[in-house]
Design brief:
The complex is a heterodimer of chains A (423) and B (119). In chain A, 78% of the residues lie in helices and 0% in strands. By secondary structure, chain A is mainly alpha-helical. The N and C termini of chain A lie far apart (41 Å). Chain B has 119 residues and is an alpha+beta fold. Chain B has one domain: SH3 type barrels (Roll). In chain B, the strands form two sheets. Chain B has a four-stranded mixed sheet, with no helix packed on it. In chain B, strands 3-4-5 form a three-stranded antiparallel sheet. In chain B, β6 and β7 form a beta hairpin. In chain B, α2 runs antiparallel to α3. The radius of gyration of chain B is 16 Å and the shape is globular. Chains A and B meet through α5 and α16 of A and β2, α2 and α4 of B.
Chain lengths: 423, 119
């Protein structure tokens, strides 16, 4: 169990200032959790779900957020206790023979997702300027690289998180459209629709795949190490994981509710972001496209920076390189080369002209396919004192992880047929 | 008695000055009949990882490294006698500069240092 600071802990010994600073960091962590959570995958799946099935898929976002929050909390716990990120812990505990499969899959997913995020950000600029999105992929990629090259962890995490506050426009739009509370609450009860059951199931799996991205887990645990968390910070970890993911999922739910109210009655199947932007018109009028473009652009750009950085993290940790975005670049040459190369690769793929929405769907499906291999290590690591110290999982945590592993395996089996039939 | 797979293989390696050298990508064992196997050296480098997956992959990685003009002593072997202690990490008595472990990092540094803000 994570514990709140007690007498003799860091809060009291550091005095009021330390306590205030810690609370500020906690609030910052929760607010900035939007960065990385609200991105191309969550926006596109939420809009499609709302437009096609009304509020009835709200439960899928809630369940996916529950999965993510629990896994993120565990990843942070392992990092704070053992000083190992997930990639490092998996290499040491399971060996390279096991790790090569989830590592390889995660790298492929990261490249695809990064391509989609750059494409999403470029489409956002296109919506603002009217100039074709492929012209914007390279500038967006260059700005992302400059942020990574000159920035530090705080700048990347907090800066992007604060800019990501613009995505609250989804929640405000939903609020101002005055959805009927009873209907919204019914959306949290899983149900079988009267039409397009395959499409419904496909969207459920897609929402889970778009939410529980492997990069988020390793990025979070790497961040815990960058910020030098200790066991005294476990309460920050727990609060950030649950409240932060809750905050991010509220934005995704706002997106779904807005799409359900505005696009639902029009019976449109959303296939472009320009179509999706129309859902802001009743609330924001002539500012609709601008606000949607800013929300999409900043969300995608933030996720792109985090995904590229995560590739540096995951490779550095798996292969034992010196890594860290706060270190001098000359001391972490392989690490900076890794994030630079993956960014360049994604820019090239996006420039060739792959449709960002299609690339998103492929990466989401792949995420679901490898989910059992991502979740299974948690079940082992969270039961070993070497990695979790005195904070190993109890029966509830283990039961949750076992359920998630089985559900992940089931979704992995059905995702490809669903992608073909319902995607 | 040490379980080399559990306690040594894939662990992080730290040099005499506390710098990260990489991970234990392979191990060399001395196997005598009717005797327990003895750890003679740890191996660091992507070619050793390639060997673990498939010998032809290891050869392929070596060929690429040679084509790039990297040191022929790679992957790096560190004798058992040079291991200081085994714990969560493997501490060794040599330094990175004594070995070819840092060859790729050094090669990349020449490029990285040309960019503004690298120092």
């Amino acid at each position: 169990m994570a514990e709140w600071p007690k007498a003799g802990g860091r809060v009291e010994s550091g005095g009021l200032l330390t306590a205030v600073r810690k609370l500020f960091n906690l609030a910052l962590g929760i607010v900035t959790s939007i960065g990385g959570f609200v991105e191309v995958g969550s926006i596109s799946t939420s809009v499609q779900a709302g437009a096609e099935f009304g509020f009835s898929l709200l439960w899928a976002i809630a369940v996916a957020a529950l999965f993510l929050a629990a896994l993120v909390e565990m990843a942070g716990r392992v990092a704070a206790v053992s000083k190992r990120s997930m990639a490092a812990a998996v290499r040491e505990r399971f060996g390279f023979h096991f790790q090569i499969i989830p590592l390889g899959a995660e790298l492929i997913i990261d490249v695809l997702l990064l391509t989609a995020e750059l494409g999403g950000a470029a489409i956002a600029v296109k919506m603002l300027t009217g100039i074709g999105f492929q012209w914007w992929v390279l500038p967006v990629g260059l700005v992302a690289w400059l942020v990574l090259w000159f920035g530090n962890f705080s700048v990347i995490e907090d800066g992007i998180g604060f800019l990501g506050m613009v995505t609250l426009s989804f929640v405000i739009a939903a609020w101002r459209l005055h959805p009927e509370a009873g209907q919204v609450l019914w959306g949290f009860v899983p149900s079988v629709p009267h039409h397009d059951v395959t499409r419904y199931a496909f969207l459920v799996v897609s929402i889970v795949g778009a939410t529980v991205s492997p990069y988020l887990l390793n990025f979070y645990s790497s961040g815990a190490i960058e910020e030098k968390w200790t066991q005294q910070d476990l309460w920050i970890n727990r609060s950030t994981a649950w409240l932060g993911v809750g905050f991010g999922s509220t934005v995704a739910m706002g997106c779904l509710v807005t799409a359900a109210i505005v696009l639902g009655p029009q019976h449109v199947k959303v296939e472009t972001y320009e179509q999706a932007a129309q859902m802001f018109v009743p609330v924001y009028g002539r500012w609709a496209v601008t606000l949607f473009a800013l929300s999409l652009g900043i969300g995608c750009f933030g996720a792109a920076v985090e995904i590229a950085l995560n590739v540096g993290y995951v490779l550095g940790q798996a292969f034992g390189w010196t890594w860290g975005i706060d270190k001098k670049r000359r001391d972490v040459c392989r690490f900076v080369t890794a994030f630079s190369v993956v960014l360049l690769l994604a820019v090239l793929i996006a420039t060739i002209g792959f449709d960002p929405l299609r690339v998103t769907l492929i990466s989401v499906a792949l995420t679901v396919v490898i989910m059992p291999l991502v979740v299974l290590p948690f079940l082992v690591l969270m039961n070993q004192e070497e990695y979790a110290g005195q904070h190993t999982s109890g029966p509830i945590g283990n039961g949750f992880l076992a359920t998630l592993t089985v559900l992940g395996a089931l979704m992995a089996i059905v995702v490809i047929p669903l992608e073909i039939l319902g995607g | 008695m040490v379980d080399v797979v559990r306690d040594v293989l894939d662990k992080s390696v730290i040099d005499r000055n506390g710098r990260e050298m990489g991970r234990v990508d392979g191990i060399l064992l001395d196997v005598e009949p009717n005797q327990p196997a003895r750890l003679t050296a740890i191996v660091i480098g992507p070619a050793a990882l390639g060997d673990r997956l498939h010998p032809s992959l290891g050869r392929f990685v070596r060929r690429i490294e040679q084509w790039c003009g990297l040191d022929r002593t790679r992957p790096t072997h560190i004798e058992f006698a040079e291991i200081d202690h085994l714990a969560a990490k493997v501490q060794v008595r040599v330094t990175i500069s004594d070995t070819a472990v840092g060859a790729i990092e050094q090669r990349l540094r020449a490029w990285v240092l040309r960019l503004p803000g690298a120092r």
